[in-house]
Amino acid sequence: MIITLPSFAKINWTLEILGKRPDGYHELRTLLQTISFADELTFEAIERGIEIRCDHPDVPRDETNLVHRAATLFGDFTGAGKGVRVTIKKRLPVAAGLGGGSSNAAVTLLALQKLWETPLAPRDLFSLGARLGSDVPFFFIGGTCLGVGRGDEVYPLADIHAEYLLLVNAGIPVVTREVYANLPELTNQKAVAKMPLSLEAAYATIAASSEPIQLHNELEIPVLARHPLLLEIKERLRQSGARGVLMSGSGSTVFAIFDSDQARSGAQNDLSQPGWLCEPARTLSRAEYRHTLGC
Ligand code: C5P
């Protein structure tokens, strides 16, 4: 049996750090969104072992690859002693704030349930996903979600729609762990002031279906300070007519929202240059996401 699936990217409409937790992670409140830009993963049953094929120079093919880790975890948990060859067509930039590795891991868990004929209870699927990375559980739901906890506790919200997005990545790799490690000291006052307000984010998405959403990412503070080029990209996108511009996740991809295809094409022409990704995309609703992945 061979299964081929897209592995979609995400952006964060908002990301707030509520505090530092005893386990070293940061308590988050974030609005996540699946978008149309995707890798492609092909799963092929083999006799035994886990084999990763990918011709992208920045993607490891050994057991450090999140797809490899997902397949190992799934095999250990279910006892399904079968093999798989996964071919990754990498289109998303790596270490870019678009959730590429997490999405690949989530799609692997979804595909292996079918390939190895071993369905998981939803509770187990989410818990295996969270062990692989904070963003992984979101990719079992898709659309617009509120993420709290490490970002791994996800709640579906009313879909936000944006037809004319442009993603810009200047090839600056950003290591998520280092971004969190370089955050300014958090005060408990701030955490306490924000902690009970999760519903505010939920209400914000209902309002956002008719009004422009308030884009806000607190991880921009350390990342833009370290990489001033990102400030320049944001400014150039604004000057090219973008209605909103924000860094996604821990960066370094910046996304912009435009009002028309024409405005977006203009910006794409203005910003395109060798070595940069300048990719048009749109939001992917939860229904569309789940239909495409069959989950
Ligand atoms: O969960 P994930 O492996 O994607 O996280 C990568 C790193 O980012 C973690 O090791 C941690 O240092 C940091 N992180 C954090 N708080 C979060 C999510 C990630 O401090 N909520």
Number of domains: 2
Shape by Cα distribution:
globular
**β-strand amount:** 25-35%
CATH structural fold name of the largest domain: Ribosomal Protein S5, domain 2
The CATH architecture of the largest domain = 2-Layer Sandwich
- The structure class reads alpha+beta
Small molecules held by this entry: cytidine-5'-monophosphate
Percentage of residues in helical conformation: 25-40%
Low-confidence runs (pLDDT<50, min 5 residues)?
none
Number of strands: 11
Name of the CATH first level of the largest domain: Alpha Beta
What is the arithmetic mean of pLDDT? 93
Report the C-alpha radius of gyration, rounded: 19 Å
- In DSSP terms, counting alpha (H) and pi (I) runs of 4 or more, how many helices? 10
The biggest beta sheet reads: 7 strands, mixed
For the terminal residues, how far apart are their CA atoms? 18 Å
- Helix-strand string: EEEHEHHEEEHHHEHHEEHEH
Describe the structure in your own words.
The structure is a single chain. With 295 residues, the chain is an alpha+beta fold. It has 2 domains: 2-17 and 36-142, Ribosomal Protein S5, domain 2 (2-Layer Sandwich), CATH 3.30.230.10; 165-281, GHMP kinase, C-terminal domain (Alpha-Beta Plaits, 2-Layer Sandwich), CATH 3.30.70. Helices cover 35% and strands 28% of the residues. It has helices at 66-78, 100-115, 122-132, 176-181, 188-194, 198-208, 220-226, 228-239, 261-271, 286-293, and strands spanning 2-20, 26-46, 50-53, 83-89, 144-149, 153-156, 164-169, 216-217, 244-247, 254-258, 277-281. The strands form 2 sheets. Strands 1, 2, 3, 4, 5, 6 and 8 form a 7-stranded mixed beta sheet that branches. The longest helix has 16 residues, at 100-115. It is globular, with a radius of gyration of 19 Å. The model has no long low-confidence stretch (mean pLDDT 93). The structure holds cytidine-5'-monophosphate.
